[in-house]
UniProtKB/TrEMBL annotation:
Domain called Fe2OG dioxygenase: residue spans: 112-215
Source organism of the structure: Streptomyces blastmyceticus
Domain of life: Bacteria
PANTHER family documented for this protein: FE2OG DIOXYGENASE DOMAIN-CONTAINING PROTEIN, MYND-TYPE DOMAIN-CONTAINING PROTEIN
Pfam families associated with the record: 2OG-FeII_Oxy_3
Name recorded for this polypeptide: Fe2OG dioxygenase domain-containing protein
């Protein structure tokens, strides 16, 4: 039944009166426009070649956007561009003409009659013979931008057609030789300019901006009653599972997500700014929601689909032999064009690009995630993270009928493959019954749900707030970390303070990462710790850090820089801020100590030293954040480490020396760094005082503990520790040779190891290199340099 209601709703909306199309074309007399360009003057229309060449002399190579970059690549976009600040538009009839064009465009694109369109010049483009622009999609450069208007100036040319496509349809526009040609289309439509075959194509591109000047009439029209019935049925029936076998009977769905056809940005998504059929369907759904007792919001969805797919060529013949690409130009190719980097057949040559010509088979998997939605009251929107299950989705247009913004094909790999992944960005109307509003919003990590809880607390409805807060437990999972999650964490923290219920408060705060915490949270953190106690606070901090050994990355390193300031504000706040500050430092030290232990076990000096140096900066931040007892504990642990730890301790001291006021002598932090400086000075002094290696001393330290307990490593260590032996020839089988190779490489020993491939077994030849002496000399020089720096920057107090 659930699927039937969704299917009927999608069909009703698909059959509803369509209002507008995705693009349109208007022609006007050329004399309506008077256009001047700096350095050229007024352009006579139609344009001739001599004037056009003057335009090119004033132009630059046009660029295009790719993600966050702006590029100039003539293999993608080959045209000349003049920026709008150098263009003047006018003429006695221009404003009247443009206003009439925009009215016609608004109607043709299906925008509401209450919408007023404006056209903002973007660039003057000149295409010569052979120039083009590959298929692309315009970015929405303004909050109110809904589309693009291309004004083709009359000129004698061939080719250069503008091709606009959307939802599987394609329209081709050709410019007039005598009149102004206006082509308008929505910003999310892919379009291209075909190569010019003769003459010059000159266009003025303009951004279409939409403004709503009065409330829209949202009454009447359409199958509202039928849609309302579908909504009621959808929310009353058990949610159907895609694969029902083995699944228990499901509860009714929490929401309905109806996918719209067009793409929108956060800034450009609004009930007033919907495009074409989206506007009609969304208005109908909004009216039906009111009749069915539902709330409706607009959302942005990220969609991924995985299809069984077949390329447009036969990759395998009947007997499974590999055949090469139809377009492979190598006459002697025997399938190598299908080989992966390891030479294995079957890996597809193209990993990403345009796969529109691939034949889709079965849909293997799909994922839909809502990442942003408007608030029910219409006041702005908010970031969310909400996976949408199969039973809550419907659409009148299938994803496969739209153009994905990214595709990746995985060729046959033996056990898997021949799959095409496609990603789409779609807008959606999201609906839920009003009585389930709190759960529907809270499940998405909505700040609005927490504001509702805070509202109950503010009005004294404590038990209602507690009941609703407890209802979050089944789905109040990972809410993110860092600045993006900070507003949600702030709201959750204040609710946790007001609930007065320790377990519920812990549940509300648990899903956030420690990178979310900042100084502005200190007062509430101190208050909540004072309310629920130190044991509770320690558990909360543990949740924020996550499991021991979890990957943290650059965000954690950046956050650790702020740890000293955060702990200082915590300890100064009313309440019990130290109950949070102390476990923050201890958890940070635990993770750092684990990494430090790992680096100490690395024998390869360049790799180890680089890692230890990075860790030294983190260690300095942790020590500066520590309280007196914790600082003493950390210092004692660090002083007990082997000499190799100086590769971490010295960078920590260098970091601290750049903030002398923060580590001044006499304070607990200052005493901690002073203790480490004295420890490093003693170790370096001892290293410098060691006798210089004798010219005939070839002894090395043992290779370390062999975890396998083999019978080879004692013989290896005997060779390494010998003062006189420089070479060793060792007949060994392949696996035993590899074991010795790895022992030498892991310990980064100055010993070459080669295999003489004569006889059986082959002979492993070990030779101690001159790095025995040069490496030790370099270590001595580095120790002397470090010691001199240490005595300058961390001098011992006098007396």
């Amino acid at each position: 039944m659930g699927q039937g209601a969704r299917k009927q709703l999608a069909e009703l909306l698909d059959d509803s009166e369509r209002r507008g199309d995705f693009s349109t074309r208007v022609e006007m007399p050329a004399h309506a426009l008077r256009i001047e360009v700096d350095g050229v003057g007024e352009l006579p229309l139609p344009l001739r070649a001599p004037v056009t060449r003057k335009l090119i002399a004033q132009a630059r190579q046009a660029r295009f956007g790719l993600g966050e970059q702006t590029l100039a690549d003539t293999s993608v976009r080959d045209t000349w561009e003049i920026t709008p600040d150098r263009i003047t538009l006018g003429g006695p009839d221009w404003q009247r003409t443009l206003s009439g064009v925009l009215d016609a465009v608004r109607t043709a694109l299906g925008l509401p009659p209450t919408t007023v369109l404006r056209a903002e010049p973007h660039a003057l483009l000149v295409y010569g013979k052979g120039q083009f622009f590959l298929p692309h999609q315009d970015s929405e450069k303004d909050d109110s931008m809904v589309g693009t208007l291309v004004v083709s100036l009359p000129s004698h040319h061939t080719g250069g057609e503008l091709v606009v496509e959307h939802a599987g349809r394609s329209i081709t526009y050709r410019a007039s030789r005598e009149r102004l040609t206006f082509a308008a289309f929505y910003a999310d439509c892919r379009h291209e300019v075909k190569p010019v075959t003769s003459g010059y194509r000159i266009t003025l591109t303009m951004n279409l901006l939409a403004e709503r000047v009065r409330p829209a009439d949202e009454t009447g029209g359409g199958p509202v009653a039928d849609l309302s019935h579908c909504l009621t049925e959808h929310f009353a029936q058990s949610a159907e599972q895609r694969y029902s076998y083995g699944h228990p009977k499901a509860t009714p769905p929490n929401r309905l997500v109806y996918l719209l056809d067009h793409e929108y940005t956060q800034r450009g998504l609004g009930w007033d700014l919907l495009k074409g059929a989206d506007a009609t369907r969304a208005a109908l759904l909004r009216q039906a929601a009111g009749q069915a007792g539902c709330e409706a919001v607009l959302a942005l969805a990220e969609v991924r689909e995985t299809w069984d797919a077949v390329p447009p060529y036969d990759r395998y013949d009947y007997y499974g032999d590999v055949e090469h690409f139809d377009d492979c130009e190598d006459e002697e190719c025997e399938g190598e064009c299908l080989l992966d980097p390891d030479g294995e057949p079957g890996a597809e040559r193209r990993r990403s690009g345009d796969f529109s010509d691939y034949e889709l088979g079965d849909l293997i998997d799909d994922e839909i995630t809502l990442g942003w939605w408007t608030r029910p009251d219409g006041n702005g929107g908010e970031q969310i993270s909400l996976p949408v299950p199969y039973a809550e989705v419907c659409a009148s247009t299938d994803n496969k009928d739209l153009t994905p913004y990214q595709s990746e094909y995985e060729g046959y790999m033996g056990n898997y493959g021949n799959t095409l992944d496609r990603w789409y960005r779609r807008a959606a109307v999201v609906l839920w019954p009003r009585q389930r509003s709190f759960a529907a919003r809270a499940e998405a990590g909505s700040e609005g749900a927490l504001r509702e809880l805070q509202g109950h607390l503010d009005t004294g409805e404590l038990e209602l707030a507690r009941t609703r807060a407890r209802s979050l437990a089944p789905f109040w999972k990972h809410q993110g970390s860092g600045a993006a999650a900070a507003p949600l964490f702030t709201a959750a923290l204040r609710v946790a303070v007001g609930l007065g219920e320790a377990d519920t408060a812990a549940m509300l705060l648990a899903p956030f990462g420690v990178e979310t915490l900042s100084e502005r949270h200190a007062p509430d953190l101190a208050e909540v710790a004072a309310q629920y106690g130190r044991t509770w606070a320690r558990g909360a901090v543990g949740n924020w850090f996550g499991p021991v050994g979890a990957y943290t990355g650059a965000d954690r390193a950046t956050w650790l820089e702020s740890l000293p300031g955060l702990c200082a504000v915590l300890r100064a706040a009313d309440g019990d801020g130290d109950a949070v500050a102390t476990p923050l430092v201890e958890e940070a030290w635990q993770a750092t100590e684990e990494r430090l232990t790992g680096w100490l076990g690395i024998g390869r000096e360049p790799e180890r030293r680089a890692g230890m140096e990075r860790l030294g900066t983190t260690l300095a931040h942790i020590l500066r954040a520590a309280g007196p007892e914790t600082a003493d504990t950390l210092t004692t642990a660090l002083r007990g480490l082997p000499d190799t730890a100086l590769e971490c301790l010295l960078p920590a001291l260098r970091t601290a020396a750049r903030r002398p006021a923060a580590v001044r002598d006499g304070t607990p932090v200052g005493r901690a760094f002073r203790s480490l400086a004295d420890h490093c000075e003693a170790r370096l002094t001892a290293a410098v005082a060691r006798p210089v290696r004798a010219a005939d001393d070839w002894s090395l330290a043992p290779a370390g503990t062999c975890r396998s307990g083999c019978d080879l490593c004692p013989d290896l260590d005997a060779f390494l520790t010998s003062r006189t032996r420089r070479d060793m020839e060792w007949p060994l089988a392949k696996d035993r040779r590899h074991h010795i190779h790895s022992r030498i490489d892991l310990a980064d020993l100055p010993v070459s190891h080669t295999t003489r491939r004569q006889g059986r077994p082959y002979t492993l030849v070990l030779t101690k290199t001159n790095a025995v002496f040069t490496g030790e000399q370099a270590t001595r020089v580095r120790a002397e340099t470090d010691l001199a720096w240490l005595r300058e920057k961390w001098p011992r107090p006098r007396g």
